[in-house]
Amino acid sequence: MPVDLREIASISGMPGLYRILSPTRSGVIIETLADNPVRSAAQAKHRISLLHEISIYTNNPDVTIPLSDIFDSINTHYGENIPVNAKSSNQELSAFMEKILPDYDRERVYMSDIKKLASWYTLVKKHLPFTEATAQPEAEEKPAKKTKAKAEKVEAGEDEAKAEAKPKKTKKSAE
Description:
Layout: E1 8-11, E2 18-23, E3 27-32, E4 39-43, E5 48-50, E6 55-57, E7 64-66, H1 67-78, H2 90-100, H3 111-127, H4 136-174
Antiparallel strand pairs: 1-2, 1-5, 2-3, 3-4, 6-7
Organism: Adhaeribacter terreus
Domain DUF6852: 54-123
Domain DUF5606: 5-51
């Protein structure tokens, strides 16, 4: 992945992008992706979309392209100065999208999506480092192993808790 989007999110009803810092009982602690970051809490009622889970539709219904790959394509073609923004014309936005992903689905990818893509890329490029595609897989494996280990511990802990709970109920019902 050329840029790590796992902790970056878009929150419905809130402008801009946010870095997810930690979970709370009723949501998550977030920090704006800006020059002067501000921390706040996003409640569970907000719809939070992690950027690493977002993909762009292609003409092949079985294939979508992850946002990180799209950002890499934009970075390859334009670097830091992209020719479009949220106020660009539809023709400019279409030409921009065709250059970075010629096979995108023109019926399911709306102009509003391309505008978001351009503004998100600008924010991400300004605040997150882009890495080489060959260097990232090693770093990607370590969190995956930790996550898997944590998941196994949680599952084991839940299974033990269930196992402990059952004998107590059985003993009480036997008496």
